[in-house]
Amino acid sequence: MRVTGQFAPLIGALIGTLGGAIYWLAVQIWPSSVAVILSMAATALLTTDSTLPATRLETLSRILCLLIKYNALMALSAAKLPFAVPANIPLALIMICGYTASFALPVAVMATRPGQPAPRVSSGALGLALLIGFAPAALLRIPGLIGLAAAIIVGMGLIAFLKFKRTRGSNDIPEMTQLLTEACFYLGALATWRYV
């Protein structure tokens, strides 16, 4: 976003206010490091020049997803599971659940992607992929199921966005779906872990 002229500081103040508000809301649920990254992501999307090549926007999205994942996983490293396991196992199980769910959701997105003559995945294969992908989250109980719900909501949002835009999208859709849904899985689990 290129802003010049006398109203540039006002636009900056509005974007800063939005970033601060997102930080304040996010820090009510997540640790400060995660809230800062979410605030940075929101303001980066607002201040990114829309004339930039799509590859630069995709790179920015990937970097922000990785930062969110890193900070959420660091905070989840102190999580306790509802059953006894050796030290450092909880985070490994959380990662297994996050990756399993986030690799199942792109199958659903690609199966329902508009512009294709027919889904490349049969409904039976899609159901099996989702069952395999979603089942491990039940091990984590409430945090896992909330994380799964967050990931599913993002996946459904992406499907709705693609249908609304009536675009087939790029070949990067499965990868971006996986990154976004995995980050949202961890954010959902982290949001509830301190209350369980």
Please estimate the helix content: over 70%
Mean pLDDT reading: 84
H and E order: HHHHHHH
Q: How many whole angstroms does the radius of gyration measure?
A: 18 Å
Helix tally equals: 7
Low-confidence stretches: none
The count of strands amounts to 0
Q: Major beta sheet, specifics?
A: none
Gross morphology is flat
How much of the polypeptide forms β-strand, as a percent range? under 5%
- The first-to-last residue Cα distance is 42 Å
- Helix- and strand-based class? mainly alpha
Set out the fold topology.
Blueprint: H1 8-27, H2 32-47, H3 54-76, H4 89-111, H5 123-134, H6 142-165, H7 173-193
Helix pairs in contact: 1-2, 2-3, 3-7, 4-5, 4-6, 4-7, 6-7
General description of the model:
This protein has 196 residues and is mainly α. It contains seven helices and no strands. Helix 2 (32-47) runs antiparallel to helix 3 (54-76) and helix 6 (142-165) runs antiparallel to helix 7 (173-193). The longest helix is centred in the C-terminal third of the chain and has 24 residues, at 142-165. It starts with 7 loop residues before the first helix and ends with a helix. The mean pLDDT is 84.
